[in-house]
Design a protein that fits this description.
Layout: E1 6-7, E2 12-13, E3 24-26, E4 35-41, H1 52-57, E5 81-83, E6 89-91, E7 97-99, E8 106-107, E9 110-111, E10 117-123, H2 132-148, E11 157-159, H3 160-163
Parallel strand pairs: 4-10, 4-11, 5-10
Antiparallel strand pairs: 1-2, 3-7, 5-6, 8-9
Length: 209
Amino acid sequence: MHAIEINRATGLIVDVPVRLSPNCDDRPAGTTLDLIVIHGISLPPGEFGSSAIIDLFLNRLDTDAHPYYAQLKGLTVSAHVLIRRDGDCVQFVPFHKRAWHAGVSQFNGRDRCNDFSVGIELEGTDDRPYTSAQYASLNRLLQGLRDHYPSLRAAPVVGHSDVAPGRKTDPGPSFDWSQLRGCGSREFHPAPTDAPIPAQPQTINPTDD
């Protein structure tokens, strides 16, 4: 397995398409990046391969194009990276920035998981298996994050449902946690508190998902 390369100056993955989302901001000053959150998304629900996820993260989704989209009108969300069904990745937010992916959330007694986490979206649903290509890309991404960010080397990898229980269910029972290399069982290990990411002034987004 060949890990990805991340440009630390830009926070972007080398040789991966970038579609910069406006739905991000600076992390609180002195924040340590020490959690990885896995999500699942499909738009419309259960359908794959359209541009709708990208359009959602870029605030250009035509909410009249499908009945389900009406509830997404005005929603401002993003993730750091999307992994499509074929394993291709698209990056939306530099890793040193705060993506709006977890919303109202808590992990190990800490609120506002967006502040200290990386958000990774997999194109999929709770009840349909994710693809082998997605697991391969996810493992490469996880290894790359650990290689480039010391504070992520022992960071827990959790689901959206773990940080927002009762509100979110993704990536769902269809996600096979045993496919993740270097994570052992789905046991949450405390991450180190050293090696903070570069300090950024704090701004608040009240509408993150």
